[in-house]
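Supplementary Text 2. Reproducibility record for the structural model of the 260-residue chain.

All settings were left at their defaults, and a single model was retained for analysis rather than an ensemble. We include the record here because the model underlies the residue-level annotations in Supplementary Table 4.
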Amino acid sequence: MSPTVSSHETQAPSLERRIGHSFSHRELLERALTHSSQAREAEAATAERVADNEQLEFLGDAVLGLVTTEELFRRFPQFSEGQLSKLRAHFVSKNHLILVAEQLELGRYLRLGRGEEKSGGRNKAALLVDALEALVGAVYLDAGLETARLLILRTIVQPQLEEFVSQGMAGRVTDFKSALQERLQAEGRTQPAYVLVKETGPEHRKTFTIEVRLLAAKENRPEFTARAHALTKKAAEQDAARQVLEYLASQALVEQAGQA
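Retained model, structure tokens:
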């Protein structure tokens, strides 16, 4: 677990350097980092209302969606609405945002109540993602949309987007489960079974292992099994479905070669 920083004043400049923005209104940064557990404990001690980061998270989520949508619209004018939607879904997903939050070491800066501190709150994916979105909202209120846009593009969108483009992956973003379903329906084949075979890790950071079991055409026997691991069941299912599609594509190439 990352060490706790006891003073917000001493930790703030470090985080500001990481995100490339110095707050004019420091209370916004403090609020973005304040989990509800800490706010409720402070209220119990002082009998005064203490703001947490939940509303900033709501705002930051909207700003993140807008900026990401605009950037994808600008970068990929050839994409359909469905492709843009699926690509955006990736960049605002929990699986992607947790990686960004961990790169920023956001857990070091959270202001947590004693219970959350003891239960490993600084490493909980949900808390880190919420804090990242709240931080975006705080930057938006502190300095406006353009500054928030720079933060989002620099830290959340562009690094992986450039990787997608360089590897030719952006145009292949799709819903693999739906694509597999449609292909098997077109071929008159049985739909595959998605089976959760394992859950590992602590409650706040589980990894799910999913198997997709494809039956042979016109036969009730297994033909191919794909296995994938991810932080959510849906993500693991998508990756496993992608593997089945790749297998089917390779088989089709083998058949074509045999007929040549």
